[in-house]
Amino acid sequence: MPENDNQSKSVLLDEVLEVLYTKREDGKVISLEGLARVEHFGLKFTREIIEDSVNAGLVEKADGVLILTEAGFARAKQIIRCYRLAERLLTDILNVQDNLVESSACRFEHVLSEEVTDSICTLLGHPRTCPHGREIPPGECCRRAMTEVKAIVRPLSQLISGETGTVAYISSPFHERLSRLESLGLSPGQEITVRQVRPSFIVSCGETELALEKSVADEIYLRVSTNHAKN
Fold first, then answer.
1. CATH fold group of domain 153-228
2. I want to staple 201 with a disulfide (CB 3.0 to 4.6 A). Which of 11, 36, 51, 212 is the partner?
3. Hey, what CATH class is 73-144 in?
4. What pLDDT, on a 0 to 100 scale, did the predictor assign at position 151?
């Protein structure tokens, strides 16, 4: 349900597009009635929003389900990108409490321009996933691999010998690898220092030294501490 009755239909439409994008991402579809239950808008109000979205060329109805048009998918993709980058910013940089991240990220997604979103993405080092492991749709800044702002959060593989950082998150599709890294002490909040980058990455984690393949180092993202960097 919207926070208050004065919340604009534009914001509510964005929320509907988010749901349809996520369903598509999961390989699922949803009906008008299902959407009303998910969003708790009520069937009549949901029908009004969908009619507006159909008239705007963002959604179409086919065989009883709602489908994003090409324009709707593009808009939803940008909204999702804003939301998931906001989650990363709030979690990795601002250290916002978990119970406040979702509501705060929801506010961000409706006010951030594409330019500001790209700047945040660059600042974070173009993360590929949100804190929950879902893909962050890449933006133009990712494709250009711009470095207008020195990344605060970077993959371990981009660090040089002598640099120190704190593990922000680990982005790996392999559950066993995540469990193994955690058992070795490589979990969010752990400070590590790079000792060697070739032929393999050697890092110190507490009193332990670990050798990591580059493919593993690519998946470990650190909040870099520049004052520990080697001169």
1. SH3 type barrels. (2.30.30)
2. 212
3. mainly alpha
4. 61
Q: What's the pLDDT tens digit per position in 175-184?
A: 777 778 888 8
What are the tens digits of pLDDT across the range 3-23? 444 456 788 889 999 999 999
CA separation for the pair 58, 51 (Å, rounded): 10
Q: Which residue has the tokens 């492991």?
A: 133
In single-letter form, the type of residue at position 16 comes to V
CATH number belonging to domain 9-68: 1.10.10
The tokens describing 39, both together, are 């969003």
In this predicted structure, what is the pLDDT of residue 21?
Answer: 96
Residues 6+ apart with CB under 8 A from 32: 43, 46, 47, 50, 61, 66
Cβ proximity of 181 and 174 under 8 Å = no
5-42 as b/e, with b when 16 or more CB fall inside 10 Å? eeeeeeebbbbbbbbbbebeeeeeebeeebbbeebebe
- Find, among 61, 93, 77, the residue nearest to 136 by Cα: 77
Say if CB 69 and CB 57 are below 8 A apart.
yes
**Is the pLDDT score of 78 beyond 60?**
yes
pTM for the model: 0.63
How would you class 77 by CB atoms within 10 Å of its CB: exposed for 0-12, middle for 13-18, buried for 19 or more? middle
Name the segment(s) of the chain with CATH classification 2.30.30.90. Answer: 153-228
